[in-house]
Amino acid sequence: MDDRHLQGRRVYGAYPDDPDQGPEPGHDYVELVGGPLDGLLLDVTGFSAEGLAEGAALIAENGHYGAGGRALYGPQAGDSTRYQWEGDVP
Q: At the N or C end, where does the chain have fewer CB atoms within 10 A?
């Protein structure tokens, strides 16, 4: 994603009381689309091509399973800058 699309966005894993919850220069991000983490950015800096293709299981306190549950996100077909929500797991 280019820098203009990143401005003012919150990065997954940022602490709520952190005054700077946005993206860092020089990092690579994908946007999380749908599900409990919709709109957040995921830092994928250093992910291998295989790792990017696998997607991510991210802790989501507000998902279907509550505390300790995870939201599954995977690459969105035709758009390498987005991960689409695939469901929640305990």
A: C
* C-beta contacts of 55-58 below 8 A and 24+ residues apart: 55/83, 55/86, 56/83, 57/89, 58/12, 58/32
Report the candidate in 45, 9, 46, 12 with the shortest Cα–Cα distance to residue 29.
45
Report the distance separating Cα 20 and Cα 87, nearest Å: 29
CA–CA separation, 80 and 20 (whole Å): 26
d(CA 71, CA 74): 10
Q: What integer is the mean pLDDT of 39-48?
A: 95
The separation between CA 30 and the C-alpha centre of its own chain, rounded to angstroms, equals 6
